[in-house]
Write a structure and sequence with these properties.
With 843 residues, this protein is α+β, with helices and mostly antiparallel strands. Among the domains are: 123 residues, no CATH class; 64 residues; 83 residues; 49 residues, no CATH class; 46 residues. The protein contains 16 helices and 34 strands. Helix 6 runs antiparallel to helix 7 and helix 10 runs antiparallel to helix 11. The longest helix has 92 residues. InterPro entries: Nucleoporin_Nup88, NUP88/NUP82, WD40_repeat_dom_sf. It holds the Pfam family Nup88.
């Protein structure tokens, strides 16, 4: 049984997925034209389970599943259920008296200890139980809970909650970000004060009284936000807010009041700002003054961060998390930047109505899709992608090429260029065509899009995989083709080649996973949550929950990246060119196979086990005993059968291609075997000839010795025949050698006049005089030391008199020496030596 079937059997009928007590019937939980007002009215006091906006009521904590059903928080251990084979299907209810509202969103803290829950207007934080809670006997587990910001979020007049999220750099994982639809982002530190926000950011300016502003309400309503990412820029300190109209604004810098920031990031940011300042100073343009002021502010901000680093935190060194606070050196508030320009402008969908934006996600990818470490080092910047979802199923894929810089409010407003997103492509999820096919247009059915709220979810293992769930099902977006295409473009050094590569568009792979839309009833069960377990004890899969508490699971495949495999269209570089053979040589062996590797047909190379046709997930009430045949059902069955027929034909074509490839490889294998046999025979022939050659070499070596001796004898005979007697010069040379030998060694054994005998006598005399000379030198050294000691005992006056007398004597001696030298010159005496020095004479 497959992993998909395992989870289906384990989760089927699990009591944790029972609807909450007092909930309405399943029809009220469906999205239809009759229930549409419930999906477009923000009323937290209503009994309906379908208020509008963002929904995410399920998450994973290691191997534990957490689910919010109404105002009740449930928790179960999937590892225990898997080990028991599905026989142990129990859950615990987290008793939280402070949570008395229907939960719309849940968010798990980075450390996994806290759970933030939010309704339409209220927010609370629950302390999760420790591991082993499933062993408790009682069905309820008491947990501490506290409401957050009751002054701002507790009343029905408060603005609705747009999104809640934990900041990844919050100290102790206790920094909760709460975004309301009025554009206020409030930061709460649960460990400090759960009532008052530590910081408040405003993405929507206050309306001025008495002033008319031509703004649509959708331009002043925030629906979602996202935190930026990066390694050596302002990305991690940037927050993006998405308006209902689709506009995007950013505020930078922003960091939690109590944060833990990696020390390596602080050093990298310092280098980044320093490089920017150096570039501006060298450029010397007209805008250098304004940029210089901006970078001075950035330098002050970065210096405030660097001063908080502990001593000894040098760069480069092992990065560690350091507690930090926002610098207070700058009194101005961060500037709201935007709205972002979308270049080129994203087109509207063909069947689109006046749809609004619903969610935004910021995804960063490492530039290492080809396994080339050198390329990664040269292009250290990440590929940053921003995805924006709309109600009609449109998804804008944008590239963040111009990263947002830190800017602050200023009294002197300069003309500031708006930030920009490069629109790579626009994805159509096909929701409009699902609701109303081309041959049966129904204008009213498009009203269901007003109750649609697509939400993004990131895959915890693969960064290039994004899931999006909405009111009509779930889609998977695989960004890997886009990222591979951009990586290849970055590797091109030639500008023309770069343009050519970019023009070869590679779209995002879009795959529908689940469909909850009933063609017959024209209604749908909205998806309220999806989660992907990231635990070693659980299978890599995806769990999808509908509004009627129906759970659907799919097993996923872990991808294995092959860095040696070249992407499609990647040219083969650095080929080894074989030397050309002469014309008389045989033609080298040529393979029947192509030089390029065999490409597996796409129908057989799916990267996951997800279904090709989206699975239907409809409530039990939708299934009748007899199938009612209607034009809509026939069209739906026809489209499904067409897809199946296409897939069957593709599989058959793939089978034919693979069989042909297999036959060709078999023939090529036989050819290579035959050539190998020929080569083996040639090798044996070469080995036999090599043995004969070695025998000949040994024979040559054995006869070489006698030949050399014979050659010496013949040469000596020739010399004797050519000059039997010595000539005059040779005779004189040998006589001189004999004379030198007698002079050095002597005529006989007792010849004392030889140089050898004289050297021996000199050694003996030196050995005899050496002890006396050594003792004499020692005595002279002692006498000299005594005389110096005696001279040092004189007083200053005595020393002065002695020196004066000595100088007079030296003058007399110099006169005497000069007279003697003159006298010797007159007598022509040349062997007169120099007089001894006065110091030597005294010693």
């Amino acid at each position: 049984m497959s992993n998909d079937d395992d989870w289906a059997s384990i989760l089927r009928g699990h009591p944790i997925f029972t609807p909450p007590r007092g909930a309405n019937n399943e029809q009220s939980l469906e999205l239809s034209l009759s229930s549409l007002p419930n999906f477009s009215r923000a009323d937290d006091d209503s009994d309906g389970f379908t208020p509008p906006g963002r929904q995410k009521v399920m998450c994973m904590k290691d191997a534990d599943l957490i689910l919010a059903s109404g105002s009740e928080i449930r928790m179960t251990s999937l590892s225990d259920a898997k080990l028991s084979g599905g026989s142990q299907k129990t859950y615990k209810v987290l008793h939280t008296p402070n949570v008395e509202f229907d939960i719309r969103q849940i968010a798990l803290s980075p450390n996994g200890k806290l759970l933030a829950v939010a309704g339409v207007f209220q927010v609370a934080v629950v302390v999760l139980p420790r591991s082993g809670f499933s062993k408790l006997v009682t069905s309820r587990v008491d947990c501490k809970s506290v409401q957050i910001g009751q002054y701002y979020h507790a009343s029905s007049s408060s603005p609705p909650i747009a999104k809640i999220e934990w900041h990844p750099w919050g100290e102790a994982g206790s920094t909760l970000l709460v975004m309301t639809s009025d554009g206020k982002m409030r930061e709460y530190d649960i460990s400090v004060d759960p009532e008052e926000p530590q910081q408040t950011l405003s993405f929507v300016p206050e309306r001025k009284r008495g002033a008319f502003v031509a703004h649509d309400d959708a331009e002043r309503e925030v629906v979602s936000f996202a935190l930026g990412k990066g390694t050596a820029d302002w990305g991690p300190l940037t927050m993006y807010a998405l308006m209902k109209s689709g506009d995007v604004y950013a505020i930078c810098p922003y960091m939690p009041q109590n944060a833990t920031i990696p020390s390596a990031y602080a050093h990298s940011l310092e280098c980044y700002v320093a490089a920017k300042q150096e570039f501006i100073s060298e450029e010397g343009s007209s805008n250098s003054e304004s940029f210089s002021t901006l970078y001075d502010y950035q330098r002050k901000y970065v210096n405030g961060l660097m001063k908080q680093l502990p001593p000894g935190t040098a760069f480069p060194s092992t990065s560690r998390s350091v507690p930090m606070h926002p610098p207070k050196t700058l009194k101005n508030d961060p500037l709201r930047q935007g709205p972002f320009l979308f270049q080129p402008s994203p087109p509207e969908l063909d069947d689109s109505i006046n749809s609004f934006a619903t969610d935004v996600v910021y995804v960063a990818f490492e530039n290492n899709f080809d396994g080339d470490e050198e390329i990664v080092e040269e292009n250290s910047e990440r590929l940053n992608v921003v995805l924006i979802a709309f109600q009609d199923g449109r998804v804008d894929v944008c590239l963040d090429l111009e990263k947002v810089e830190a800017k602050w409010e200023s009294k002197h407003r300069h003309q500031i260029d708006l930030p920009m997103f490069a629109v790579y492509e626009v994805i159509d999820l096909g929701i409009a065509s699902l609701l109303s096919p081309e041959h049966n247009k129904d204008a009213n059915i498009f009203d269901l899009l007003h109750g649609n709220h697509p939400v993004f979810s990131l895959d915890p293992i693969h960064d290039d995989t994004v899931y999006i769930h909405h009111a009509f099902g779930v889609h998977m977006l695989d960004l890997r083709p886009v990222l591979q295409h951009l990586t290849m473009s970055l590797k091109e050094e030639d500008e023309d080649a770069l343009v050519t590569t970019l023009e070869n568009h590679h779209p995002t792979s879009v795959q529908p996973i689940l469909s909850t839309y009933s063609v017959e009833r024209k209604s749908s069960n909205p998806i309220v949550a999806i989660t992907v377990p990231n635990d070693v004890y659980l299978t890599y899969s995806i769990f999808i929950l509908t509004s009627t508490m129906r759970i659907v699971s799919f097993a996923l495949n872990l991808r294995t990246d092959h860095p040696d495999a070249l992407p499609d269209g990647e040219p083969h570089r650095h080929r080894t060119q074989l030397p050309s053979l002469p014309d008389d040589q045989p033609v080298p062996f040529a393979s029947m196979l192509s030089s390029k590797p065999f490409v597996i047909p796409g129908i057989l190379s799916k990267p996951s086990t997800l279904p090709k046709v989206p699975r239907l997930s409809l409530p039990a009430s939708s299934f009748k005993t007899e199938l009612e045949v209607t034009p809509d059902t026939l069209r739906y069955l026809g489209s499904v059968m067409e897809q199946f027929t296409t897939d069957i034909r593709d599989v058959q074509l793939a089978q034919v291609a693979i069989v042909a490839r297999m036959d060709m490889q078999r023939k090529e294998f036989e050819r290579q075997q035959n050539h190998c046999r020929v080569m083996l025979a040639k090798i044996e022939d070469v080995k036999a000839r090599r043995a004969n050659l070695q025998d000949k070499l040994k024979s040559f070596q054995s006869t070489q010795g006698p030949l050399l001796a014979r050659m010496d004898r013949i040469l000596q005979t020739l010399i004797n025949d050519a000059s039997p007697e010595l000539n005059e010069h040779e005779t004189k040379w040998f006589e001189e050698l004999r004379r030198m030998k007698n002079q050095i060694l002597g005529a006989g054994r007792y010849d004392t006049s030889s140089l050898v005998s004289r050297v021996q006598q000199l050694h003996k005399e030196f050995d005899r005089l050496l002890p006396n000379l050594t003792e004499l030198v020692k005595k002279e050294a002692d006498q000299k030391a005594k005389s110096q000691a005696a001279g040092s005992s004189f007083g200053f006056s005595q020393s002065f008199a002695y020196g004066k007398r000595s100088e007079a004597e030296r003058v007399k001696l110099d006169d005497t020496i000069s007279k003697i030298e003159k006298l010797a010159k007159k007598l022509e005496i040349t062997s007169l030596g120099k007089p001894p020095r006065l110091g030597d004479e005294q010693s």
